[in-house]
Amino acid sequence: MNIDRVGPISVAEFHAEFVVPRKPVVLTRAIEDWPALSTWSPEWFRETWGTRKVRCRGAKGETTLAEYIDGLAGSTMESPSPYLRNLNIQTDWPELAPAISPRCAYTQDDWLSSRVLPAGWPRAAKHLNQLFISGTGTYIPLHFDDWMMHAFISNVHGDKRFVLYPPGQADLLYPRDDYYLVSRFPNPFEVDLGEFPRFAEATPLSIDLHKGESVFIPCGWWHTTRTLSPCISVSSNFVCESNWNDFADELCHMRDRLGGRTWKTPLIRGYLALAGQALRSGRRLRLH
Ligand SMILES: O=C(O)CCC(=O)C(=O)O
């Protein structure tokens, strides 16, 4: 299997050909209306937001965005910069939101953003986007996304390699015992086969994402990225009819595994089952 590059297709075709069969794809024209495509660059962020305090994942302290952007110039494959990632645009940096409007049509059908779920639960905002800024060589741990959400990640600037593994290969990817969504590999691009021998059997799909392109990563697919040139990306996760039941099961499973079993979990499962039925009926009423 390869990851195809596809131009303009209708939302219905996107769902039928990729979302429902859970097939990764790159869409080349999904975000062409975003003003960010003509404004955002590392230099623009430095000039416009340079004094803003930011914190990279895993780093101890804060730095200014200007210092972070300056560091990208020295980021290499051998010695990559830390990753400034998963910044919640709608809740933490709402001034950026107009530049990524209109909302991408392919991620609109997001049942997590519907009114049947309380505000702020299970995510901090409806239609949440996250921002990623990285330098050459920077990589993200190999993982699959929380709650079996589908992921849709767009490159606004620069180039990034995406490497994906199907859900059935989880055993070859050595999930962590304490946090089973993330692999134990210290660096997923330089895996020690002496320590992790079964990884040799894994069969990745790899694709380089360029400016203006978006990759759809179906729920449960493991993925990692390595930045090829200074890069700015925006992610959007969504749950729709195709993965609602997986989402509800996984959210409850994760609560049991990581949050400690509580009396609330069966109630949440029941509520999500009813919400799913309501959303499905609403869709049928709209369609017929
Ligand atoms: O863009 C990236 O580097 C990683 C994004 C990602 O893995 C995710 O949003 O799940």
Which terms summarize this structure?
288 residues, alpha+beta, Jelly Rolls, two-stranded antiparallel ribbon, 7 helices, 10 strands, binds 2-oxoglutaric acid
Descriptive account of the structure:
The protein has a single domain, classed as Jelly Rolls (Sandwich). 25% of the residues lie in helices and 22% in strands. The protein contains 7 helices and 10 strands. Helix 1 (11-19) links the parallel strand 1 (4-6) and strand 2 (25-27). Helix 3 (42-49) runs antiparallel to helix 4. It is globular and about 50 Å long. The two termini are 36 Å apart. The model has no long low-confidence stretch (mean pLDDT 95). Bound molecules: 2-oxoglutaric acid (AKG). The site of 2-oxoglutaric acid (AKG) has 9 residues, from strand 7 and strand 10. 2-oxoglutaric acid (AKG) binds next to strand 7 and strand 10. It comes from Pseudomarimonas salicorniae. It holds the Pfam family Cupin_8. InterPro entries: Cupin_8 (IPR041667), JmjC_dom (IPR003347), JMJD6_ArgDemeth/LysHydrox (IPR050910).
Low-confidence stretches: none
Number of strands: 10
Give the second-level CATH assignment, the architecture: Sandwich
User: What pattern of helices and strands is seen along the backbone?
Assistant: EHEHHEEHEHEEEEEHH
Looking at the structure, what is the overall shape? globular
Total domain modules: 1
Q: Please report the first level of CATH classification, the CATH class.
A: Mainly Beta
Whole-number mean pLDDT: 95
* Gyration radius, rounded: 19 Å
Describe the biggest sheet? 8 strands, mixed
CATH homologous superfamily placement: Cupin
- Provide the list of bound ligands, each named once: 2-oxoglutaric acid
Task: Give the helix tally.
Answer: 7
At CATH level 3, the topology is Jelly Rolls
End-to-end distance = 36 Å
Provide the β-strand percentage band: 15-25%
| Helix content, binned percent | 25-40%
Alpha-beta content class: alpha+beta
